[in-house]
């Protein structure tokens, strides 16, 4: 895989291609949702370039990190207090199955991502090939929970058949942009994502899950030799 250095990170060129390709779908006057992560990073950079050439758009960022990047790129921002429905949202994913269902939240931004990926007329997912799976669940499912009673919530999560692991960063509990904890739920494969999502949502303490069901319109897959744009009529992988 061709690697690309970005600051102190090394990313695949495939992510760059996928992220940049998505910017082609953005039209003048649109209000867009901007996801979070190292693939959408390239969309944000490209958008900054297009804005400096005259493109007029507004965006709602899905995380503090994306807000910071978007401001740096010169992208005008707005909020859901001003906007009911976005024209287009672009976001990465940790896994994409053949039905276009997703696991997201690897970066811990899943709640705000669910807002921008749901309240949008069109949702484009940008990934490299490594994210395509026949069945969701190899990637631990991120679930955002409130800190109060978190051990009780973890026990409830375990009763649904997973091993819950409280996310940490630098030995400290990871805190989401919303002031909550993230629990990474290790399942041995997820057979029925929609019903699992509903069961998880009913647990006391659960804010949101990283299962994104039935929201994806298009997947842009970065590959070592270019990009492939996959619509729901063509099955993955
Ligand atoms: O859900 C996410 C953040 O919460 C990201 O979209 C997901 O983790 C993919 O990230 P990357 O593009 O860096 O691989």
From TrEMBL:
Entry annotated with the keyword Isomerase: yes
Enzyme Commission no: 5.3.1.6
Primary enzyme class: isomerase
The entry's keywords: Isomerase
Protein name: Ribose-5-phosphate isomerase RpiA
Entry superkingdom: Bacteria
